[in-house]
């Protein structure tokens, strides 16, 4: 453990804010996400044509494979710089790192726009801006961990997903619309550059620092291989981080370029159709964020949300494999798997703090481990697709997603209950709260009641199983065991009736 990390972070390590102030800061983070994702999503439907206008001898499959390889190179750069900038975020503040990330992306996109006939500048922008986008995303998530912990943090992540989904919808719509008006794919570069410039101004003028106590910079803590030390902290930490690593392989950004090649070669899709696909993928992310916030996280909690998501991602890949023409059906099914890492990352963050790491460092090292998956995955998918074509089974690409999602869940299931309990924030505090008789509770343990859990349309009979205090003063929450054996957790007074 680095000498600068001799004690865990506590409540004094972050800015002391009211709930209203935290929510305002979180909205600023949502704006930053919208700006960042819109600026690169406008390029997604046009990248193949932009590179095709320069590499005139390349086929669509060759361009798709080339873009996958450039994505892997970008992920390797991300692997090198992300832990350094993430650790710097603990030392100099989140805002400084966000400014570095946005300004770097702006300059890269500006050079590509001014040199749109140069393969070098196009490839430089495609690969390196990808790395800085990850730095921005890592820093935003570290800021969220400054504001919230445990289940609050897991519940906040789908709200970022909602912002991301809106951006992925908006970007391709703007891109495809401008292409139809101007007849040029290169206009997407100009739009991306302009939006990134606006992002710089927005963060500079609106973003407020979320970190309180800063931690001196340490090169040892910023090592790209620092995640190896974190992996060795405990069996639970190792398995949680590797679960997140395997889940990352199934990310849409890792398969999208190869999937575009599949759509063009096997389904005969045009660039506009792929643009529509990206827009619907944005709807999927938006839908996944809403469902995650209001249904999945409250229903499953951080302990089980990953399991449900892994199952839905495997089912989405299975749909792709068996019904390859129904690409949009695959999007709908996998929308329920978008929140796959929210619970896992919240638990990793909690353990990182317990082991004495800064929150920025914890997120950066977790993302750096995931960067190795981002390096591997595009190569894996492009090679799988090439091999599948050679043997007459191009859907081998989809079967790869099924296998990875399944293996991720199998690994997660090896984590013991005790290891999971140690990774859930405020576990000891909750145990104490459970033992306290709450004077203002309307119901007590053992009362027969009618309750409506989240996702239920009616009230059903059950029995109060547990009564405890909520996060806000004076709020009482109840766990109800229904007569059919199902459980409703963290129910409020308005969700419970003594009689019908």
Provide structural commentary.
With 500 residues, the chain is mainly alpha-helical. 68% of the residues lie in helices and 6% in strands. The protein has two domains: 15-208 and 228-422, MFS general substrate transporter like domains (Growth Hormone, Chain: A); 436-497, SH3 type barrels (Roll), CATH 2.30.30.140. It is built from 17 helices and five strands. It has a five-stranded antiparallel sheet with strand order 4-3-2-1-5. It is globular and about 75 Å long.
Instruction: Write down the secondary-structure element order.
Output: HHHHHHHHHHHHHHHHHEEEEE
Residue windows where pLDDT falls under 50 for at least 5 positions: 1-12, 427-437
The largest pleated sheet is described as: 5 strands, antiparallel
* Residue share in helix: 55-70%
Summed up, the domain count is 2
CATH class category label of the largest domain: Mainly Alpha
Overall average residue pLDDT: 83
CATH superfamily of the largest domain, by name, is MFS general substrate transporter like domains
CATH architecture of the largest domain: Up-down Bundle
Helix/strand layout:
Layout: H1 19-41, H2 47-52, H3 60-92, H4 94-114, H5 119-147, H6 150-182, H7 187-206, H8 226-231, H9 235-249, H10 252-266, H11 271-322, H12 327-334, H13 342-354, H14 359-390, H15 396-412, H16 417-422, H17 427-435, E1 448-451, E2 460-469, E3 476-482, E4 487-491, E5 496-497
Antiparallel strand pairs: 1-2, 1-5, 2-3, 3-4
Helix pairs in contact: 1-5, 1-6, 1-7, 3-4, 3-5, 3-10, 3-14, 4-5, 4-7, 5-14, 6-11, 6-13, 9-13, 9-14, 9-15, 10-14, 11-12, 11-13, 11-15, 13-14
